[in-house]
Amino acid sequence: xxxxxxxxxxxxxxxxxxxxxxxxxxxxxxxxxxANHNSIVGRNDTTIHIGDFCWCNNRLDADQFILRLNGNHVxxxxxxxxxxxxxxxxxxxxxxxxxxxMVCHYAMTIWERSHYNSWHLFGHSxxxxxxxxxxxxxxVNCFNFYPVSFNEVAEIMRTKSDNINxxxxxxxx
Length: 173
Fold this sequence. Notes:
8 strands; Purple Acid Phosphatase, chain A, domain 2; 21% helix; 4-stranded mixed sheet; alpha/beta
């Protein structure tokens, strides 16, 4: 199973204030994020972290959180991922159960295969941007500080309008 999340901001003291998160301390926020993740992500699941995973400068500091999280992990660069190597990617794309998904920390209006109604998941806006078409903010602020499963993403996408550049088949008309 695939899960998606963004903007965890582990160890970022100011994020509680900036985003009005319901935590009294950074430790409470970190522990809640870890507990929420582990309550739904299994050992063999894969989580795509779409940027701003933690506020730190090196992998050893990030590992204090990564090693406590269930499953396998893919980390994309966001605004504050200084712990990731320069070679880390900003975009992840995959076809899952026949549906093409493209994820990036930053929202796009047009993305790869969007003209075929592909999906785009992003972070960075902390719930302040709704996206266009089959696109939405997957950040923890939008999902009560939990990652979101592929099945949940599919349910959300069913309610969203088509992409603005969707190519509709002519059907001979």
